[in-house]
Amino acid sequence: MNISQLQKARSAYQPKVPASIEGATKLSEGKATQSVADQDDIKKLFPNTYGMPIVTFEKGSSDANVEAFNVGIILSGGQAPGGHNVISGIFDGIKRLNKDSKLYGFLGGPSGLVDHKYIELTSDIIDEYRNTGGFDIIGSGRTKLEEVEQFDKGLEICKKLNIKAIIIIGGDDSNTNACVLAEYYLAKKTGVQVIGCPKTIDGDLKNEMIETSFGFDTATKVYSEVIGNIERDANSAKKYWHFIKLMGRSASHVTLECALQTQPNVTLIGEEVEAKNQSLDDVVTYIAEAVAARAAKGLNFGTVLVPEGLIEFIPAIKKLIAELNDMLAANQAEFDKVADDKKIEYVANHLSAANAAIFNSLPAGVSRQLALERDPHGNVQVSLIETEQLLADMVAKKLAEWKKEGKFAGKFATQHHFFGYEGRCAAPSNFDADYCYSLGRVAALLIASGKTGYMSSVRNTTKPAAEWLAGGIPITAMMNMEKRNGKMKPVIQKALVKLDGGPFKYFASKRAEWAIETAFVYPGPIQYFGPSEVCDQPTKTLTLEH
Amino acid sequence: MNISQLQKARSAYQPKVPASIEGATKLSEGKATQSVADQDDIKKLFPNTYGMPIVTFEKGSSDANVEAFNVGIILSGGQAPGGHNVISGIFDGIKRLNKDSKLYGFLGGPSGLVDHKYIELTSDIIDEYRNTGGFDIIGSGRTKLEEVEQFDKGLEICKKLNIKAIIIIGGDDSNTNACVLAEYYLAKKTGVQVIGCPKTIDGDLKNEMIETSFGFDTATKVYSEVIGNIERDANSAKKYWHFIKLMGRSASHVTLECALQTQPNVTLIGEEVEAKNQSLDDVVTYIAEAVAARAAKGLNFGTVLVPEGLIEFIPAIKKLIAELNDMLAANQAEFDKVADDKKIEYVANHLSAANAAIFNSLPAGVSRQLALERDPHGNVQVSLIETEQLLADMVAKKLAEWKKEGKFAGKFATQHHFFGYEGRCAAPSNFDADYCYSLGRVAALLIASGKTGYMSSVRNTTKPAAEWLAGGIPITAMMNMEKRNGKMKPVIQKALVKLDGGPFKYFASKRAEWAIETAFVYPGPIQYFGPSEVCDQPTKTLTLEH
To answer: Which residues of chain A have a pLDDT value below 70?
Structure first.
């Protein structure tokens, strides 16, 4: 296999771990926990895994004599940098406890558990993947583990392979399902434990005990590298406004972190748009005002960061989409018979007056997309809307009006970009390499301690790795009840951008200056070998939160 | 100013230079040169700067006593990583020769010379920009220096500022103009010298004496970083074919270099498409065959690299565009009166039968774009065609036909990307930092030696910097006659991808294997501080050429 020089050099990196788990450990249990909300409901749904204590690993005097045990791991959902290091951490962790322990990897995500597709992960395989990006060691998948039949099929293979515990590496939904599985296996007295690991570049799986989800650090650094390069280009060529969309549909953490790193002229935060009940026109006007203000200073260039989920955060559009989905579902048969060139008209005529007005105000390309292109479940496909181009077009239109009115005298030419796949499988930064490896090592300790329904937790992450705190948090403690597909379900509470949190408040205090000045910062590419202040920095988000 | 940690750390980097120019130098002159073609025409047009010898700088015994002299610099055309290091090399170079020498920077490109817009570049300013990306120190521009009036205006400011020489940092056209200016100033006995520096990320300004243009190394490394990340994502998620377009309209060097670094499944090289007289359908079929072959192995994912200029390399489309431009120019008034929804029909009816057939075979979006959107000169805007999406759509259509015929049984879902602005202003790699700084130092020496009409040359660049060879090449030696806007003009011969050259031949010997296997390589981000085999590698193109 032909591997790059960097990958070769990087394979020798030994990730740092908390000093407390370098050698022998002892477990310390805290007080009983409660779920973040809806305590009665959650307790009823998780009678066996509710209320367990937070646990912490501290330096112990000598390693306990641990019998060899087998572990099965699952990668669930979208890729995030560092997944391979979680796995190597687990591998080293269980081997340290007993060299005869074995690690199995279920292939292609949760379906591997159900369909009994797996490989044994030996040291030869693990060594090839240390400190690399991607989830290609065993592949990932989006099958949801929700049905008892799936759980029972999983149990079969666990029994066959003598698997003591399953570790699910995933986002909020996957970890919710991990907990459901833990509860089921515990209620059935199967003896199989389930542990979760917090993964997602979106950064929306976090709380007091889970300071950040892994991959967020690396992905935002890759995006910030290319955003910085684009900013420098904008400031050199001085002729384009660059509209840059960033991955992240349900939360705007990625966009906020990239803004903190690169100081662009305009940054949209979905959570704020929603809280302020802004319309699409409000958003367009806000951008156009920044363009006009800079043009008045002779600066006909700039950068705009747009979160992928922006459209869905705009309350009016959210309502429109909800009605559209319901209306189309109710009139499916009739709608299918309408000729393509009459479909937009049909939709407009079948919406409530308020939503029809919003629908008709959208640019033709967008209303067409909403009316004609639907996913296999019949839902409109918001993710196909090229928000960055839509905004650029609408701002251009507004500026053209302002030009006629004498309110704008500059030039406005645009370029647009979308970054997502560019960062999800980058090789992990030192932070993610260390954090992930530590999460894996801690997961192994949680298993050896007999825990189930816990998420691996590594805290104090703005400090050097030696000072990080290792432990576990009961997954039920992060849950509340939310409506999903019309039914109330127990789910891990998603962490949205807090408008009263440190990162947003810092951003809000600076953005007026960033809008009008050219205050760009150019972070450059992730460095692995240089001075610590370059190579080992956590995200601005983490630093401002802690 | 808020600068990134990396920028801070990187500002201390001292670029390496050829050992021969570290201290005192002596000039050695080679034999008289000839232009690469059309010798009689070029000689007639450049009576004073034709036939000069190639010169080389060797270690000298002691520095000559050089009087203080002033230099003016111009950044011309698109940004390329390392421009600031050329400037710091010039600055340090002229200060080494005499500390009272001064450096002026003309602002916003060649128009700064004509309009007398400039700043003095002092050590405070220079130090802030060492080893950084971008051209923002003085800005760049696309004004062409072609008219005697411009030359005379330039001379005025040179006299006023006592400027002994102008250095033009630009691509092939800018360096052609540098030579025209040198010839004019020499013929007029103005005493003002003109020196060129080879810049362009496109890599198409090169020959025996100019092994590579600066910026190509860094830009292709940035693109290869993100392409590698996308490949790893493709190989982890196993559900998308990623179509990736790369900057570079007139040559496919960038695409070829990125292919050599990342080993994608399919790579299109414009020069080959042209040489083989391929049609758009040939190209689409070629990609679809790779998709089908991988699908037969259960691999429904992959990566396709597409050079930005592909469409213009397809002979049939090249002819169509040429006729379109002529026909629209001839019928301008009538065409303007045609209703928008009749314009496509009008175009089809006014083309020759052969070109009308090609025009009608294009997807609706493309024929619409060609018919309706034209640049200020009335030309169709080929660069607006989203080639990567066009190809993805056409491949999907072909595979759908093949599915009906039973020739394809896989899945085909796509994502598309375009990388250009992401790399043009990246901070220079060690190679570009050293190469650019050396080019600047050599330019200073050429001036001190009284040379004009020369391009700064640094060769032997696959070896460590100490062994690089420093010198100058007469710009006329790189010229031939070409048709531009209907007239024969002397221009630097553009270096296209050579189908019998080392880089293409290596690629051609491997591509069948890369198409069917998953042979992706993940280069990762540019490193500045690590082991030399990671940080100091020249491009694969250079290595395979020398």
So the answer is: 1, 63
Q: Are B184 and B192 in contact (CB under 8 A)?
A: no
Tens digits of per-residue pLDDT, A263-309?
999 999 999 999 999 999 999 999 999 999 999 999 999 999 999 99
Sign (positive or negative) of CA dihedral A292, A294, A298, A304: negative
CA distance A374 to B301: 23
| Residue listed under structure tokens 């801690």 | A442
Q: Is the CB of residue B534 less than 8 Å away from at least one CB of chain A? A: yes
pLDDT for residue A368: 85
Strands of B327-468 (E only): list them.
Answer: 414-419, 454-459
B536 is catalytic: no
Q: Where does the pLDDT of residue B1 fall: very low under 50, low under 70, confident under 90, or very high at 90 and above?
A: low
Q: Which of B202, B204, B393, B432 is the catalytic position? A: B202
Structure confidence at residue B374 (pLDDT): 77
**Structure confidence by residue, pLDDT tens digits, A231-272:** 999 999 999 999 999 999 889 999 999 999 999 999 999 999
Burial bucket for residue A318 (CB in 10 Å: 0-12, 13-18, 19+): middle
Cα separation, B380 vs B335, whole angstroms:
14
User: What are A277's two structure tokens?
Assistant: 């009940």
Angle between helices A83-97 and A430-448 (to 10 degrees): 40
Residue B150, pLDDT score: 98
Residue A50 carries which DSSP code?
A: T
Strand order in the sheet with A53-59: A25-32, A53-59, A469-474, A454-459, A193-198, A163-170, A70-75, A102-106, A118-120
Quick one: how far is CA B110 from the chain centroid?
Answer: 18
How far, in whole angstroms, is CA B299 from its chain's centroid?
35
How far is A200 from chain B, CA to nearest CA, in Å? 14
In chain B, the residue whose alpha carbon lies closest to the alpha carbon of A384 is B415
For chain A, the 3-state helix, strand and coil shares in percent, each to the nearest 5, are 45, 15, 35
Q: Cα torsion for A26, A32, A38, A44, to the nearest 10°? A: 90
Does pTM surpass 0.95? yes
b/e code B467-502 from CB counts within 10 Å (16+ = b): ebbbbbbbbbbbbbbbeeeeeebbbbbbbbbeeebe
* Strand duo B479-484 + A163-170: pairing: unpaired
Structure tokens at B535: 């940080």
Is the Cβ pair B79, A524 closer than 8 Å? Answer: no
ipTM: 0.96
Any CB–CB contact under 8 A between B491 and chain A?
no
Convert the pLDDT of each residue in A486-535 to its tens digit. Answer: 789 999 999 999 999 999 999 999 999 999 999 999 999 999 999 999 99
